[in-house]
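Hi R.,

Here's the input for the fe (ii) ion complex you asked about:
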Amino acid sequence: MNLYERIPNNVNLSEDKKLQRALEKWLPNYLDWWQQMGPDGFQQKDVYLRTAISVEPDGWANFDFVKMPDYRWGIFLKPAQPDAKIGFGDNYGQPAYQEVPGEFRNSLRRIIVTQGDTEPASVEQQRELGKTCPSLYDLRNLFQVNVEEGRHLWAMVYLLQRYFGRDGRDEADALLERRSGNPDKPRILEAFNQPCDDWLNFFCFTMFTDRDGKYQLSALAESGFEPLARTCQFMLTEEAHHMFVGDTGLNRVVKRTAQLMKEGDVRELGGIPLDIIQKHINFWFSYSLDLFGGEISSNSADFFAAGLKGRYKEQEQYEDHIVAEQNFMMKVVEEGQLKEREVAMRNALNEVLRTEYVRDCEKGLARWNKTLADEGISERLFLPGSRFHRHVGEYAGHHFDIEGNLISAEEFEQRKAEWLPTMADREYVRSLMHPVVDPGKIANWIAPPATGIKGKPFEFEYVRL
Ligand SMILES: [Fe+2]
Ligand SMILES: [Fe+2]
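And here is the predicted structure with fe (ii) ion in place:
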C-alpha cells in the first residue's frame, strides 16, 4: 500500500520525510489502542461509514461499507490562505503564524494536547455501547462518531508531530496512554472521565459534550496559528453529525416517552420517564459547562492576547478585535452571597464562549419541547442554571439549586436526587438497554428516526452483523 493509501492527507506528507517517519511509528500504536479501546465486539463487521477523502465542500466524504480498523484516518486541513492575518489580540493584523512562535510554544502545545485528549477519551467512554444498540441505524451512528473522533486525534497528533519536534512526539504517545476514568492515568478533563455506558448518556454526551467541542474548535478555528485554524475548520464539518446524533437521539427518546405517557405509566410500559431524562440533561449540561474553564481566567486573556484562541465567529460577530477596554459583568460568590463583579473582558472570554454555547443548547431544548407539545403533553424540559453542579470555576465548591440560587451543602445533599440521576435511575435505564439488531426494528424506549443516512431508508442494513 502506498503512503496516501495508508494515511490519506492533503498536507503533502510524502514530501516531509521526518513527519512521515514520526507518523508511521505512531500508526501501529494507534491501531493497537483502537483494538484495545475502540468499539468492543464489532471490529470485524462491515459498517456503512462516511470517510473524509478531501476538503471540497461538495464531495468531501465517501459513504461505503468499511471494517473499522480499515477506516482511513486521514489528515485534512482546509486550504491555506496565502496572506492570512492574525484576527484578534495584541498582534491583530500581523501575518498569521505558520510555525510555532517560541514565546507561545507551551501555551499552544497545551491547547492542542487538551483538545487532542478529548478525542480518544470519548471513544473509550463509548466502547461498550454497541452491545446494547437500539437499532442498526443507531449502531452505525455510534461507530461513525467513534471513527471520526479517532480521526480528530490524528489531526491533533499531526500538529504535535509536525510543529513541536521531540516533545510533540512525546505528547502524541501520551495521548494513547491515558485512559478515560482510569484513576492512575485519567483523561485531562473530567467530563471525559465520566462513564457513558447507556444510550441515554450517549445521546446526552453527543448533544452537550460534543457541542462543547464545537465551540472550542470554533474558537481555535480563528487561531492566528494557521495550521491549527485550518485543522479545526475541517474538524467542525464532521462534528456537526455528532451533535445531530445527540440532538435527534434525545428528541426520539422524548417522543417515545410522550407517546407512552398517553398510554399509561411510562415505567410499566418500558420507557424512560421524563424526570430521568431531565436529570441526565442536568448532569451532562453541567459537566459540559465546566469544559469552558473558569469564569475569570488569565489563560483566556493570554490566549486571546497572543492570537491563539479567539471568540466564536470572531470575524463575523465582532468589530473590536483587540478588546483591551471592554468589561464584563458576572456574578461571583463573595462572603456567602452572589454579588456582581466587573471583570476585564479578556479575562471573561471563557464565560463569553460558554454563553454562546448555552444559547445553542437552548435551541435543542426548544425542539424537544415542541415534540412534547406536538404529542399533546404539557410537561416541559429545561436547562439548569449555569451555576448548578459545577466543578470548575467561580461556582465550584459552592452549592446551587437547579435554578442557580445559592444554597447550603446540606440542602444540596438533601435535594440532589431530584436533580441528578440516582443509582436507581441509572440502573433502571440500563435495564432497558437490550440490543435490537434486526434491520428496520427499534427498541421500545425510543422512536425511529425521521430519515435514514445518505438517502437510505431506516430499514437499511447499516451494519452487517
Ligand atoms: Fe472530535
Ligand atoms: Fe465529536
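One thing worth noting: DSSP finds 13 helices and seven strands in the chain.

Cheers,
M.
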